[in-house]
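Dear colleagues,

As part of the handover before I leave the project, I'm documenting each prediction I ran so the next person doesn't have to rerun anything. This entry is a single chain, and its sequence is reproduced below.
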Amino acid sequence: MKHILTFFILFGLLNLSISQQNNDWKGVFLDPTGNHIQQGVEAYFKTSVCEGKEVVLLKFVNNNNYNVELSWFNAYFTSSKTWVKHNKPEQQVVFYLPANTVSEGNCQNNTQLVFALDEVDLTANTFLRLTTEYLRIKKMD
């Protein structure tokens, strides 16, 4: 009986550890104070690997009862505390987020919310944090 109880306790701890590793989303800095929520929209990021490439995945949560259009320019903090920003018109990201939904970038779909680190001359070791520049949240009808 003790062995069965020990097994379930260890299995539960292992499962908890694995679920925490797969859910290590961090808040995107949406303003200078580090807030990750603006106008009812939450923003998160995490690093991952897609098809052998190191990437940053984004997740947005729309807590509003209306659709929104998000537009922004990606900006990155490096491990050497340098801020790298991309604010050329062709680098602007625009994303439509339905009311009361969660949209999460992953390797299979929502690729608009996936950014390859090598495209901005970074690696998982030199990337520290994702932030945004000129985030705009527009209420859609």
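DSSP finds one helix and ten strands in the chain. Strands lie at 26-27, 37-38, 41-50, 53-62, 67-78, 83-85, 93-97, 102-104, 114-116, 127-140.

All the best with the project,
I.
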